[in-house]
UniProtKB/TrEMBL annotation:
It comes from the Bacteria. Its EC number is 1.1.1.44. It holds the Pfam family 6PGD. One of its GO terms (biological process) is D-gluconate metabolic process. This is 6-phosphogluconate dehydrogenase, decarboxylating. NADP(+) binds at residues 11-16, 34-36, 76-78, 104. NCBIfam families: gnd, PRK09287.1. Pathway: Carbohydrate degradation; pentose phosphate pathway; D-ribulose 5-phosphate from D-glucose 6-phosphate (oxidative stage): step 3/3. InterPro entries: 6-PGluconate_DH-like_C_sf (IPR008927), 6PGD_dom2 (IPR013328), 6PGDH_C (IPR006114), 6PGDH_Gnd/GntZ (IPR006113), 6PGDH_NADP-bd (IPR006115), 6PGdom_BS (IPR006184), NAD(P)-bd_dom_sf (IPR036291), Pgluconate_DH (IPR006183).
Length: 483
């Protein structure tokens, strides 16, 4: 009798193919299925030839080929396709079997699906998978959450196929119940949006303002990749600067209109729902939206002019300032992301391990960097740390970078260079460390036109007051609430 598979996977697109090849290379027997069954044949006779794969041609055949408790992993497009597939799989499963969603599902959907599947006596896991095609094949960062009872049955597979950091520590651990895994992956992707936009702003300043050649930018990013900014995204940016097509930098032949798949937008919307100032990631999403208005920007540039002036001064010094601005802004981005995770944990009763999350992101994923080790240390030193900006290491780093950061934002504004994430990060930092903000006037305005009430500095927090500002209004006040 043929040996049954350790796990089954539905969805042989790029990520699915590479993930099952990773599993098989670690000694697991994997059953595969795809709705378009020709893909099964192509895989089994192609990249999967001679390996421990079981090709199946129906969901029932896939399920029947699995060891109990059965583990069925889906890697399909987020949304309705996941719900439809769950309904196709569940009739073939038994109590205690496990369904795993490894796609980029929105975490509220995973919360709902976990409840739905558990009500059928089954277990459900929603797992973030980060690292792209290469990570899936050689070791991704995995962020599983959902039915806690499922973890002992998938732990070895997940941790064996994940990326490893120092002392062979896997970039994978249990995140929390229901939608916690997909939530953490969503925040990861939001931070990814921010990191990419920050690096793009640095490139824009170096190219358009400083007038650096691509070779000079290559050398700059290469140097940065050996210090505080050591990361996958800096590394690939260096490589992009060095890539030539017909002797010319390919990057300059790429249209400046960015796409997106929605996870950054979800992160921003969640922050608004929870009242968290996620300004940098929000600006990075809007920067992509603005870039997509290419034709309108071309027309506007002919009417409004192209305002960027060329730099006059010490280029080497200013490149150092750009590095400072990039690193300090990166700290703010992660600080905001971690505040969002903290607030979501309160809202959803999740027990998130913030240091552990940084460790999961240390390898395999798109935002992997040496910097994340410092975040883990910060939360190891103080698990209740309210904001990374208050950690001694990050306080010292921002203090050192602050002058250069301000110089970059100031010169960008003075010379017409858009730097939405550099500037929003600096505004957040200044706002966070300011004892008195002008929200007192804002509250007075709200009370004046809408009787929305205000609190007083000479009274305890939680007591609300209304003033009849014009003498024509009454004493009735609006309901006080926060969103």
């Amino acid at each position: 009798m043929n040996k049954k598979a350790d796990i089954g996977l539905i969805g042989l697109a790029v990520m699915g193919e590479n993930l099952v090849l990773n599993m098989e290379s670690k000694g697991y027997n994997v059953a595969v299925y795809n709705r378009t069954t020709e893909k099964v044949d192509k895989f089994i006779s192609g990249r999967g030839a001679g390996k421990n794969f079981i090709g199946t041609y129906s969901i029932k055949e896939l399920v029947d080929s699995l060891e109990k408790p059965r583990k069925v992993m889906m890697l399909v497009k987020a949304g309705a396709a996941v719900d439809a597939l769950i309904d196709q799989i569940t009739p073939h499963l038994e109590k205690g079997d496990i369904i795993i969603d490894g796609g980029n599902s929105h975490y509220p959907d995973t919360i709902r699906r976990t409840k739905y599947v558990e009500e059928k006596g089954l277990l459900y896991v929603g797992s973030g998978v980060s690292g792209g095609e290469e990570g899936a094949l050689t070791g991704p960062s995995l962020m599983p959450g959902g039915s806690a009872k499922a973890w002992p049955f998938i732990k070895d597979i997940f941790q064996n196929i994940s990326a490893k950091v120092e002392d062979n520590i896997p970039c994978c651990d249990w995140v929390g119940q229901d939608g916690a895994g997909h939530f953490v992956k969503m925040v990861h992707n939001g931070i990814e949006y921010g990191d990419m936009q920050l690096i793009s702003e640095a490139y824009h300043i170096m190219k358009e303002y400083l007038g650096l050649s691509h070779d000079e930018m290559y050398n700059t990013f290469d140097e940065w990749n050996n210090g505080d900014l050591d990361s996958y995204l800096i590394e690939i940016t260096r490589d992009i600067m060095g890539y030539r097509e017909d002797g010319k930098p390919l990057v300059e032949n790429i249209l400046d209109a960015a796409g997106q798949k929605g996870t950054g937008k979800w992160t921003g919307i969640t922050a608004l729902d929870l009242g968290v100032p996620l300004t940098l990631i929000g600006e990075s999403v809007f920067a992509r939206c603005l870039s997509a208005q290419k034709e309108e920007r071309i027309s506007a540039s002919k009417i409004l002019g192209s305002p960027i002036k060329k730099f006059e001064g010490d280029k080497k010094q200013f490149i150092g300032y750009i590095k400072d601005a990039l690193f300090a802004s990166k700290i703010v981005s992660y600080a905001q992301g971690y505040v969002l995770m903290r607030e979501a944990a309160k809202e959803n009763n999740w027990d998130l391990n913030y240091g552990g999350i940084a460790l999961m992101w240390r390898g395999g994923c798109i935002i992997r960097s040496a910097f994340l080790g410092k975040i883990k240390e910060a939360f190891d030193n103080n698990p209740e740390l309210p904001n990374l900006l208050l950690d001694p290491y990050f306080m010292q780093k921002i203090d050192k970078a602050l002058h250069g950061w301000r110089q970059v934002v100031a010169q960008a504004v003075l010379n017409g260079i858009p730097v939405p994430t550099f500037s929003s990060a600096l505004s957040y930092y200044d706002g966070y460390r300011t004892e008195f903000l002008p929200a007192n006037l804002l509250q007075a305005q709200r009370d004046y036109f809408g009787a929305h009430t205000y609190e007083r500095i000479d009274k305890p927090r939680g007591e609300y007051f209304h003033t009849n500002w014009t003498g024509r209004g009454g004493d009735t006040a609006s309901t006080t609430y926060d969103v």
